[in-house]
Design brief:
About 50% of the residues lie in helices and about 10% in strands. The chain is α/β, with parallel strands linked by helices. A 5-stranded mixed sheet has the order 3-2-1-4-5, with helices on both faces.
Length: about 400
């Protein structure tokens, strides 16, 4: 005896042809009556069952709506660029996609088809934002511990909390970030973070604790690594900055030194925001309490800083207005990398720009990203081996 599936399969083709033909109502009635007598099903149930069988037919399987333009191969190509770009959002990734693809093709690391590449390059920022939103992973959210404490000598440094948009390149905000884990007890590694406000050029340097001498050496390294001169530094009220030792160092180099107001972290907003979405994003909250970790962390920064400055774009906040108790923010329409901001600045010499162009032509974001990941594993191994818990 035939099963229901076999009966519907036997009459499916005849039923479909009768549905397409206008004068075959009697044929449809005959088929439905036959199936009803054999199976005992109701007429409506039989019609719905035939419709389901019709959908299963690959010849009649159709997709409603507009055809998909950005197919799976374009999405795969986008994901590779997104991972090489540090997994930033689509709005920040969109302006640098062309450059990434050119570099990958130059170094023969691009394996995607011409069709997928063309679709990726033609993708709008809105579509890219939507696709990248599917890639974003749940990241660990947490808060670090602040090691900043006001110094008795803070009154020797003038306070500045004005308009940063009028500052010239060489004006930097500085801050220290502690790699303490869950406790501030004992000795540990700190990172001195410098951000050049007009062009958002970021330089980081690891040091052992946050003594005045160690902080000065880190700042000297940052001064040498910049292609232009530092003309102003702006720290918070931490004792590693607000002291005569630091003040004398700045005066000897004709560097203006200003500071934030106590308990007003937004006065130092450009560097404070990077402590989270750059420092914690790339290094994490792991406690680094062995001196060997300083060199291992600086090895990461030697690759991470050029990677961020040359290939990771950001958007500036243009305006902020409070409306009914809520802040409405307006950002730049097109995100730019710090490297692009340097090239666009009229206050930076052509010689410096040519030097950076030559450096930029040798870099590959995918290779740099893989090297950063490798050096991070080295850092964790060093901490595990030489840290108190590893001995």
């Amino acid at each position: 005896m035939e099963t229901k599936q076999e009966i519907f399969a036997r009459y499916r083709k005849e039923y479909r042809e009768a549905r397409k033909s206008k004068g075959s109502r009697s044929t449809l009635t005959r088929i439905i009556d036959t199936v009803k007598n054999v199976t005992g099903m109701g007429r409506k149930s039989i019609i719905r069952a035939f419709n389901r069988e019709q959908i299963k037919d690959p010849c009649t399987l159709e997709r409603r709506g507009r055809p998909v333009h950005y197919t799976r191969d374009a999405t795969v190509a986008l994901k590779e660029v997104w991972e090489a770009g540090g997994e930033v959002c689509g709005i920040l990734l969109h302006p640098v996609v062309h450059e990434y693809v050119d570099i990958f093709q130059r170094d023969k690391l691009w394996t995607h088809s011409v069709d997928a590449t063309n679709k990726l390059l033609a993708m709008s920022s809105g579509t890219m934002k939507e696709r990248v939103g599917c890639f974003l992973k749940i990241r660990r959210k947490g808060r670090g511990i602040s090691s900043t404490s006001p110094s008795r000598l803070k009154h020797i440094i003038p306070i500045f909390h004005g308009d940063w948009s009028k500052k010239l390149p060489g004006t930097g905000q500085i801050d220290t970030v502690v790699h303490c884990g869950h406790t501030l007890a004992g000795n540990m590694v700190f990172t001195l973070n410098y951000i050049d406000v007009p062009v958002l050029w970021d330089v980081m340097r690891a040091q052992w604790n946050k003594g005045q001498e160690a902080t000065q050496k880190s700042l000297e390294h940052i001064e040498k690594s910049l292609a232009w001169n530092i003309i102003e530094v702006h720290p918070d009220t931490g004792s590693e900055f607000i002291n005569w030792f630091m003040k004398a160092w700045c005066d000897a180099r004709n560097i203006l030194m200003t500071r934030s107001r106590p308990s007003h972290s937004n006065d130092n907003m450009h560097v404070e925001e990077r402590n989270g979405h750059i420092m914690r994003r790339w290094i994490g909250y792991m406690r680094l309490d062995c001196i060997e970790a300083v060199d291992a962390l600086n090895d990461i920064y030697d690759v991470l800083c050029p990677y961020l400055n040359h290939f990771v774009a950001s958007r500036r906040l243009i305006d902020k207005v409070e409306v009914n108790g809520k802040w409405k923010k307006r950002y730049e329409k097109v995100a730019k990398t710090p490297y692009q901001r340097v090239l666009a600045s009229e206050h930076i010499s052509l010689e410096v720009k040519e030097k950076l162009r030559a450096e930029h032509a040798k870099l590959n974001p995918l290779v740099m990203k893989k090297e950063i990941d490798r050096l991070k594993r080295v850092l964790y191994d060093v901490q595990k081996k030489h840290g108190p818990t590893g001995k």
